[in-house]
Amino acid sequence: MLAKLRSLDDQRYAWVVVIASFLMLLIGNGALFLLVVAMKDIAASFDWPRTIPSTAYSLQFIGGGLGGILMGWWLDKAGMGKPALLGSIMIGIGAVLVSLVESAWQLIVVYGVVIGMLGNAAMFSPLVANITRWFTRHRGMAVGLVTSGQSVAGALWPPVFEYGLGSVGWRDTYLFFGLFGLATMVPLSYLLRRPAPASVRLSGRSAAEHVDEDAPILHIRPRTLLALLCCAIVGCCIAMSLPLAHIKSHATDIGISPMQAATILSMLLAGSFVARAFASGLLIAHVGSLKTLFIFSTIQAVTLGMLPFVEGIGVIYLVAAVFGFGYGGIGPTYPMIVREFLAEQWAGRYTAVVIMFGTFGMAIGGWIGGIGFDMTGAYDVPFLIGVGFNAINLGIVAYLISSTRRRTMVTVPA
After folding, report:
1. Per-residue pLDDT averaged across 117-136, rounded?
2. Residue 77 φ/ψ, nearest 5 degrees
3. Up-side HSE of residue 225: CA atoms within 13 Å toward CB?
4. What is the C-alpha separation between 113 and 221, in angstroms, rounded?
5. Long-range contacts made by residues 372-380, C-beta under 8 angstroms, separation at least 24?
């Protein structure tokens, strides 16, 4: 009886963990989108080329990826509470420090180390790996809901930040955001201190356990699979990073007002929210995580290739929303692939490794956009380069799909 009550309590608290994780991603990712919105203002105030704030944007991802390895190990050893607390404090302090920068190296160090390596490192792969430990039946839905926090952040924050830039300037906007982050994220981190129930943590499949005879298996060694996933995520993240970092600047460069440009970014992330919160979980349940990744990566590649050729505000809204739908659906698939095909007990560190390579791709994409603009005066060439990297991603995923087959027998304990 006590065990049943405990199980029911764990099931209810699992949704508390989902909500807290969603809110932490929503708030924490504000630091990323604030730089996207303020990129032109920061560059103009110091007479910098856009390569400098683009480098800060890129190093935030690299720092977050490297720090994510440590956070994944910390999660596996001690749970989510302490990494979440550290990340919350560092994002808030980092935003306050950006409001005080006077030179390029200060902006780059704050974003790369404080906000990236010590802050956002705890805000994606550890939160997602942690949520997979709370669910069995609704795991895909839970992962989609948590990762949609990034999408809601991108839809919510840009208009707010654009208003702040116009009202008080970029420095005070950073200051107010940093204080808000500290006041909200630190309390939320305490909701993540409770460990996942052992009954869920120990339910991961292995070759020695009874499994569904319809479950797919990959005829690839685990290390090879991990390496291919790392290569695949670099390709898709280079492609997705280009519009995320530069679509607002691209829109204003072709004559769209700053507020409308900010709402284009919001539209993009609104499409991402729909994919993450609803579509990705349903597709994963029906066709599997690998095929879901291929579908959404294809949508992303096609719409990214359209961006250099559309100009009207209505068409850009539509393309941005569909691009966001494709980009958003990709996010939940990689943790699910790791959970499905690799060892569950190391899900935290394996997920962190894959996401680390994804952050490298995000960093490269942001940098390509900045330097490409400085060299050509437009974003057309960088966007098309992103399509090429997305095609590499699709080739790898297609190979992985072709390497799967259905089990012909159920394995049982020896």
Report:
1. 87
2. -85, -40
3. 21
4. 34
5. 373/50, 373/246, 373/249, 374/49, 374/50, 374/51, 378/250, 378/253, 379/242, 379/246, 379/249, 379/250, 379/253, 379/307, 379/308, 380/308
Q: How is the chain split among helix, strand and coil, in percent rounded to 5?
A: 80, 0, 15
Alpha carbons 306 and 347: distance in angstroms, whole number: 36
Nearest-angstrom CA–CA distance, 319 and 313:
10
pTM above 0.85, yes or no: no
Structure-token pair, residue 319:
């393309």
Is the confidence at residue 64, as pLDDT, over 60?
A: yes
Residues whose CB falls within 8 Å of the CB of residue 294, separated by 6 or more in sequence, listed in order? 394, 397, 398, 401
Structural domains in the chain plus CATH codes:
8-204+218-404 (1.20.1250.20)
Predicted local confidence at residue 140, as pLDDT: 76
Tell me what pLDDT residue 208 has: 36
Q: How far apart are CA 115 and CA 28, in angstroms?
A: 9
Position 357 pLDDT exceeds 70: yes
93/4 Cα distance (integer angstroms): 43
- Which amino acid is residue 209, in one-letter code? E
Mean pLDDT value across residues 117-135: 87
The answer to whether the beta carbons of residues 35 and 53 sit under 8 Å apart is yes
pLDDT value of residue 339: 79
Phi, psi of 223 (to 5 degrees): -65, -35
Lookup result for tokens 């129930």? 197
**Beta-strand relationship, 404-406 and 216-218:** antiparallel
